[in-house]
UniProtKB/TrEMBL annotation:
GO terms for biological process: fatty acid biosynthetic process; secondary metabolite biosynthetic process. Transmembrane segments: none annotated. It comes from Weissella jogaejeotgali. This is Beta-ketoacyl-[acyl-carrier-protein] synthase III. NCBIfam families: fabH, PRK09352.1. GO terms for molecular function: 3-oxoacyl-[acyl-carrier-protein] synthase activity; beta-ketoacyl-acyl-carrier-protein synthase III activity. Belongs to the thiolase-like superfamily. FabH family.
């Protein structure tokens, strides 16, 4: 039985179409000054070429695999975290497994919205430690744009599309030092794709669903109330202070939320990985993409990195990584 896991390779992928704040201003009553002032977001990548969530996930995974000598057939487990799946069945992970021709992998989705990468990484860690597989693919992928009501300017200006993929391998040393996760069931603050039940039997019945919607001020207040204390208490339980963490990678909800967390923790923004200004809120993919960018640009040997996700559900949690 393995003692831990390590990251073998990682990559991220975004659609080629870049949508600016000025572009959004042509289809809704908003402007660049308002969007940047309230969110810090300047641009986002949007899937306008017919790419669905499984396509983004597949391309990120292929790029990660290309960095290794690992064949798709060597992958034993594929987890895709998403709350914008291609559909309910087959799972997005199953489509990725097919696309990669990873015939020996069993695959499934995890839906914990913007905390997805935390839950996916934790889950893969357990399976690898149990000896279920030698290699696992954890992919966080979202095509948020397909779920947006672009008349709802308070929600739609935040979001972009993207994917991050990580190949994990069993190891003598463990990447994950500690973890903690929570769920508070609440569908009022954030909801998406709610399917309406039947009220009568009729030949006219057809499945109906809802677009994404969030109560932005309530989201900010909930994060402000919960997340800084969660991070501080989680670190204290592991004998650490926020100052002991080298890099923080929080959910890329918007820049103002990340700035608030940094201020509450009394840590400089230089320690916080951010990609929300260029990619927008990519839901579960934001942390995965941020960690990949950090790995590409920074020598992480000996560094402590805290991953913190929070989002619809209300679901939140952290993983402390020791590189």
């Amino acid at each position: 039985m393995a003692q831990g896991v390590k990251i073998v390779a990682s990559s991220h992928y975004v659609p080629k179409n870049i949508v600016t704040n000025d572009d959004l201003a042509t289809i809704m009553d908003t402007n660049d000054e308002w969007i940047q002032g309230h969110t810090g977001i300047k641009t986002r990548h949007v899937s306008l070429q017919g790419e669905n969530t499984s396509d983004l996930a597949t391309k990120a995974a292929q790029q990660a695999l290309a960095q290794t000598a690992i064949a798709p057939a060597d992958i034993g487990l594929i987890i895709v975290t998403t709350f914008t799946p291609d559909g309910f069945a087959p799972s997005t992970a199953a489509l990725v497994q097919r696309n990669l021709q990873a015939e020996n992998a069993w695959a499934y989705d995890i839906s914990t919205a913007c905390a997805g990468f935390i839950f996916g990484l934790s889950t893969a860690d357990k399976f690898l430690k149990a000896g279920t597989a030698k290699y696992a693919l954890v992919i966080s992928a979202e095509v948020n744009s397909k779920m947006m009501d672009f008349k709802d300017r308070a929600s739609s200006v935040f979001f972009g599309d993207g994917a991050g993929a990580f190949i994990l391998e069993t190891s003598k040393q463990s990447l994950l030092m500690a973890e903690e996760m929570h769920t508070i069931g609440n569908e009022e603050v954030v909801h998406s794709g709610v399917i309406q039940p039947l009220h009568e039997l009729s030949a006219d019945n057809y499945p109906k669903t809802t677009a994404f919607h969030q109560e932005g001020r309530q989201v900010f207040n909930e994060v402000e109330r919960l997340i800084p204390d969660h991070i501080t208490n989680f670190l204290h339980q592991n004998g650490l202070e926020p100052a002991d963490v080298d890099y923080f990678i929080p959910h890329q909800a918007n820049l103002r939320i990340i700035e608030m967390i940094a201020k509450k923790l009394e840590q400089p923004m230089e320690k916080f990985v951010t990609n929300v200004t260029k990619y927008g809120n990519t839901s579960s993919a934001g942390i995965a993409m941020g960690l990949d960018e950090l790995r590409q640009n920074t020598v992480l040997t000996g560094k402590k990195v805290l991953l913190t996700g929070f989002g619809a559900g209300f679901t939140y949690g952290s993983i402390l990584c020791q590189f």
